[in-house]
Amino acid sequence: MNKMSFLEIVRMALGxxxxxxxxSFLTMSGITIGVFSIIGVxxxxxxxxxxxxxxxxxxxxxxxxxxxxxxxxxxxxSQRRRYxxxxxxxxxxxxxxxQLMAGNPEVICLKAxxxxxxxxxxxxxxxxxxxxxxxxxxxxxxxxNQFSIEQGRNFTTDDIELARPVILIGQGILKKLFLxxxxxxxxxxxxDRTYTVIGTFAEKGTQFGKSQDDIGVVPLTRFLNDFGxxxxxxxxATQAPSQLAYNETIERAITAMxxxxxxKPEQENDFELYxxxxxxxxxxKVADAIAAGSFVISGIALLxxxxxxxxxxxxxxxxxxxxxxxxxxxxxxxxxxxIQFLLEAVAISLAGGxxxxxxxxxxxxxxxxxxxxxxxxxxxxxxxxxxxxxxxGVGFGFYPAWKAASLDPIEAxxxx
Length: 416
Prior knowledge:
The chain is built from 14 helices and 14 strands. With 416 residues, it is an alpha+beta fold.
């Protein structure tokens, strides 16, 4: 077969698809949906994973944290119930842990946040929207959570020991309550308690769609005095002196936590340990589960689309039986007919694949932008998508193409 004859076959294949535009479009849509689902999910997941691995961190440098619940919240059903039955980490236990770890490391952050999710700040008739992150902590909150002070000052040890009614606020509260005046020294009300603003956090932006600037923290002792210590569990963040001492510090910290919790040698830990690395690993597991589910859904959609391609191509063979007979009678060979119908099937599949890739990339990156993650183009997944679509076109289009190529020219010319 020379180059000209192959180009002629391609032209005829594409021309045949153009005759039935609506039918070709509807057949292509099945492929588009299948490819869109997997490309969209993988684009969003890849963008989020890239952002996490290149700097989005929940904790500061060399920091690990103890809590009653795992970072994912403990899941659902019986598993979460098991975590809920654990004893709370009390302030007395947290203070005892500080004593055991005293001197090295120097940064130990204690914190507890309101879990009801309805906290609202009020000042001079102005209110923030409900749902502030509101809690109590100590002077090490900045280092442990990558915050910094923009105006005013941080908590002091006296603020914590004397349970002073003072508060540090984020830019979200600042912009809603203090439109054109300094917040320092002003008294705001949260959950019917009043606090004097002594400092503001520098802007942090959003992470995974949630603002980190809608936050207010008071001394941990004041928080527990105002709202009680029942059903409140303390989270303890500890910063290792260096990366080299990180593992050694974790081992020492686990021993200290077991001591303050009163655990016997044969008892398992009744607390959770997590760090930036564990957060990334947890996200990777969730991402893999989402990807696996997307593969299943996309596989079903692509299988159904492939059956649709085969059905439409069989209909096309039946409708064009006489055309095939005429072409054979004037010299078209079997492989010419076979290639033409295969090209039609592959063209439909690839067109649907390209559309699915474009929509998937747009949708996945749209979600990534909403969650403040980087925008990417998944070249590897796009290439795999095109290969899969080509395979579907060949696989499901081969039988109709073979049937068309195998028609007897005399019988085909008689067909009405």
